[in-house]
Amino acid sequence: MSTSEDAGAVYRRYLSAVLLHGQASAKAVDLGATDLYALNILELGGSMTPGELGRRTGLTTGPTTRLIDRLEQAGYVRRVPAPDDRRKVIVELVAGPGGLDEALAPARQKIGAIVQGYSPEERAVLFDYFARAADAYLEATTELHGERTG
Question: SS3 of 91, please?
Answer without folding.
Answer: strand
